[in-house]
């Protein structure tokens, strides 16, 4: 952190950490979007990455309000703790929240649930694209990071989508220095990832430094779970467990926050951010590998979903 | 902990993927599930060993064709530093990706195959790294195991490279003999090369001094966004938000706003966490000025006695990134800092052969992946520094007016009316 009282250039330099550099870059990206787009929106899931996005937005625009609303794509399969947190956090910030509902998309017949597949992860794409069209958004902030997944490692900070919301990995605009090209043709929109260069560890260290609240499911707690696809899944109304799947009550926590039906818990006793940081430092499995059933289908499942307009 | 961004370039056979794989694995940047996934794929394809290139080749087309097409960013950390790798392909048809990856790097690792000596590709990478202003170059002489860890092989490569590199304006070149496959001098010092007294590659990456690379002399603050709360509590608040490009700004400093030329003082340097007495790169802050003057996005705040050149004519080295070539008379959009203008190509002065470094003054166009010196005229003045002074205020991109694709990357060589361009003796000055 920066000490203003005893300033000298050497002292300031010594105190500038990698988190300061990452934060400054992310703030720059958000301001660039605010300046170059008509109607941006920030996607907020209640997860740790989008919690960091909200703090970056505060750093970029306070004491003014955010020049964009916050939007949640609600699968209807959320952890209740996360929804409570979402509402509380947005209220504290005094910002506008838009909720786009996957259930509504289903009710309107825009999407159909696949028989036998309880996950609504893929259905979110239609809800998101409909909401973008309905509100006329031209830039959509997401909390994706390049260290999460190999297709994301190649995605630009300003990621162009065509009128069907599709990502074309072979036709990406070169991105040099900090010069972002935000020009759009009719029907196109931009996905923008301000924390592209952050790792899972950076996110937790930043949460610790900034003393940010996170939903309680990130910390170790007792929960009835069962084993499927070599992951611990929570029992819920949305996800009935099979007759041969034994339910046990275990001490677990979540490394990512997503749809209850495809987000796995990890066994853990980490009860504080400091303990989570220690756990992340020792982890031998990536967060998506440990916790996301949907990424395990094939080695390019993320690339395929992104091509269809996924986050 | 501080941050080091470095670039690598290379193709399938030169051991780049093995080297990155080793750095990531030994520093715990690869996880077990990632390793298992590439083990499965390697087995399915009938490879005899795990192909570490699968780690870095993330796109379907890359996996299918077994080549690296695009820039991939990778992350790892040691207790001393956090690292961001811009991993780029090495072939000439991907020069633009190499340029992109180099644009933000502090250091470049240039790979040389000990058996083959200094080939075109290594030279091209070193040239581009220098052109893009990367201050530190590491020449990693790889596959030393295949030449019997022979000191004379390393020395010959070093001499050849140093002789050639005299043409480049680069001050810090470090040579390290390694075997990425066996791990010699990658993380640990090698026992097989007792004649080598220098650091291992990772030790060098952790310790290379980058503190003096930052320009703290020429204060430049491109205005990005105006913070105006318009609430009762902050009635008259006007914060000029941006990221400090170069130099140091202090509370109370006399400043000038360009291009208007209005002078005032810095009243406050604001952040959400409170005021700062002073700020330097790379901080994003908001400046409040003592006088109520007209400032908008695209303006630049600097010191009265140290200003960029206000010019609508410039010479620049341009790397062309589009299928449709750059030609004299063509018009593009140009984005420089937070300012966007129209630009016209007045002249293509010469084109450089990125392999021989020969400059061709008879060239009439710049094709995809070609680099040349171009004279541009803009519809409104820009606030320009030479690229070697500042990447932020000396770099720009060209955008196609119709497709809006980013078609070129430019580095300012000279701002202002044309001057005679001598035959370049130092190409990447």
What does this structure look like?
The complex is a heterodimer of chains A (311) and B (429). By secondary structure, chain A is α/β, with parallel strands linked by helices. Chain A folds into two domains: 9-202 and 302-307, 3-Layer(aba) Sandwich (Rossmann fold), CATH 3.40.50; 215-294, no CATH class. Helix content of chain A is 34%, strand content 15%. Chain A has ten helices and ten strands. In chain A, α3 packs across α7 and α7 (200-210) packs antiparallel against α8 (273-282). The longest helix of chain A is centred in the N-terminal third of the chain and has 19 residues, at 18-36. The model of chain A is unreliable at 1-7 (pLDDT under 50). In chain B, the strands form five sheets. In chain B, strands 7, 8, 9, 11, 12, 13, 15 and 16 form an eight-stranded antiparallel β-sheet that branches. A six-stranded mixed β-sheet of chain B has the order 2-3-1-4-5-6, with helices on both faces. In chain B, 19% of the residues lie in helices and 36% in strands. The mean pLDDT of chain B is 90. At the A-B interface, α1, α2 and α3 of A face α2, α4, β2, β3 and α5 of B.
Tally of extended strands of chain A?
Answer: 10
Q: Could you tell me the radius of gyration of chain B in angstroms?
A: 24 Å
Coarse shape of chain A: globular
Largest sheet of chain B: 8 strands, antiparallel
Assign the CATH class of the largest domain in chain A: Alpha Beta
Mean pLDDT score of chain A, rounded? 87
Average pLDDT reading of chain B: 90
Distance between the termini of chain B: 32 Å
Classification by helices and strands of chain B: alpha+beta
Considering the protein shown, what is the CATH homologous superfamily of the largest domain in chain A?
HUPs
CATH C-level of the largest domain in chain B: Alpha Beta
Question: What is the strand arrangement across the widest sheet of chain A?
Answer: 3-2-1-4-6-5
Distance between the termini of chain A: 33 Å
The dominant shape of chain B is globular
By secondary-structure content and strand pairing, the structural class of chain A works out as alpha/beta
The CATH superfamily title of the largest domain in chain B: P-loop containing nucleotide triphosphate hydrolases
């Amino acid at each position: 952190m920066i000490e203003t009282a005893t300033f000298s250039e050497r002292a300031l330099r010594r105190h500038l950490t990698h988190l300061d550099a990452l934060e400054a870059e992310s703030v720059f990206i958000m301001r660039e979007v605010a300046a170059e787009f008509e109607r941006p929106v920030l996607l907020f899931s209640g997860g740790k990455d989008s919690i960091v996005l909200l703090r970056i937005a505060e750093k970029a625009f306070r004491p003014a309000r955010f020049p964009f609303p916050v939007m949640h794509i609600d699968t209807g399969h959320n952890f209740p703790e996360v929804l409570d947190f979402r509402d509380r956090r947005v209220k504290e910030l005094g910002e506008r929240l838009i909720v786009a509902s996957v259930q509504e998309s289903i009710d309107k017949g825009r999407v159909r649930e696949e028989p036998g597949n309880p996950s609504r992860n893929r259905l979110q794409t239609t809800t998101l694209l409909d909401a973008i069209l309905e509100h006329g958004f031209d830039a959509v902030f997401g909390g994706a990071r390049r260290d999460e997944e190999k297709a994301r490692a190649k995605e630009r900070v300003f990621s162009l989508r065509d009128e069907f919301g599709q990502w074309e990995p072979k036709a990406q605009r070169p991105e040099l220095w900090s010069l972002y090209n935000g020009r759009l043709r009719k029907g196109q929109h931009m996905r923008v990832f301000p924390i592209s260069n952050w790792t899972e560890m950076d996110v937790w260290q930043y949460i610790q430094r900034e003393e940010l609240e996170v939903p309680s499911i990130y910390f170790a707690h007792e929960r009835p779970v069962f084993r499927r696809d070599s992951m611990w899944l929570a029992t819920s109304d949305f996800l009935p467990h099979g007759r041969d799947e034994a339910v046990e009550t275990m001490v677990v926590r979540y490394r990512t926050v997503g749809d209850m039906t495809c987000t796995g818990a990890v066994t853990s006793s980490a009860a504080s951010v400091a303990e989570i940081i220690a756990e992340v430092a020792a982890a031998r499995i990536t967060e998506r590998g440990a916790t996301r059933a949907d990424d395990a289908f094939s080695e390019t499942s993320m690339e395929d979903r992104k091509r269809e307009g996924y986050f | 902990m501080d941050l080091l961004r470095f670039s690598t370039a290379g193709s399938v056979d030169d051991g780049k993927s093995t080297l990155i794989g080793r750095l990531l694995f030994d520093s715990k940047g690869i996880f077990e599930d990632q390793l298992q996934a590439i083990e499965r794929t390697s087995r399915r394809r009938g490879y005899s060993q795990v192909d570490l290139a699968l780690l870095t080749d993330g796109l379907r087309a890359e996996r299918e064709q077994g080549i690296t097409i695009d820039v991939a960013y990778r992350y790892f950390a040691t207790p001393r530093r956090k690292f961001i790798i811009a991993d780029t392909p090495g072939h000439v048809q991907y020069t633009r990706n190499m340029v992109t990856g180099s644009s933000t790097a502090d250091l470049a690792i240039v790979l040389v195959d000990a058996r083959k000596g200094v080939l075109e590709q290594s030279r091209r990478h070193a040239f581009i790294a220098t052109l893009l202003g990367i201050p530190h170059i590491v020449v990693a002489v790889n596959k030393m195991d295949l030449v019997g860890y022979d000191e004379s092989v390393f020395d010959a490569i070093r001499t050849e490279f140093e002789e050639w590199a005299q043409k480049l304006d680069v001050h810090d070149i470090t040579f390290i003999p390694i075997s990425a496959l066996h791990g010699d001098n990658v993380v640990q010092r090698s026992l097989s090369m007792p004649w080598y007294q220098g650091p291992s590659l990772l030790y060098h990456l952790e310790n290379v001094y980058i503190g003096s690379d930052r320009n703290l002399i020429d204060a430049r603050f491109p205005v990005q966004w105006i913070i105006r709360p318009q609430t009762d509590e902050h009635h008259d608040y006007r914060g000029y938000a941006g990221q400090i490009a170069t130099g140091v700004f202090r509370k109370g400093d006399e400043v000038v706003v360009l291009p208007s030329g209005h002078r005032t003082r810095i009243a406050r340097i604001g952040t959400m966490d409170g005021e700062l007495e002073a700020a330097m790169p790379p901080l994003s802050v908001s400046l409040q000025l003592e006088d109520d003057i007209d400032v908008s996005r695209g303006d630049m705040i600097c010191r009265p006695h140290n200003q960029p050149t206000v010019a609508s004519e410039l010479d620049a080295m341009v790397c062309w990134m589009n299928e449709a070539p750059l030609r004299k008379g063509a018009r593009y959009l140009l984005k420089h800092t937070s300012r966007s203008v129209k630009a016209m190509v007045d002249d293509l002065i010469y084109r450089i052969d990125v392999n021989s470094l020969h400059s061709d003054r008879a060239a009439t166009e710049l094709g995809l992946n070609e680099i040349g010196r171009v004279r541009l005229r803009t519809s409104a003045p820009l606030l320009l520094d030479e690229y070697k002074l500042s990447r932020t205020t000396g770099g720009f991109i060209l955008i196609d007016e119709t497709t809006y694709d980013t078609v070129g990357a430019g580095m300012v060589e000279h701002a202002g009316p044309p001057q005679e361009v001598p035959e370049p003796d130092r190409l990447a000055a």
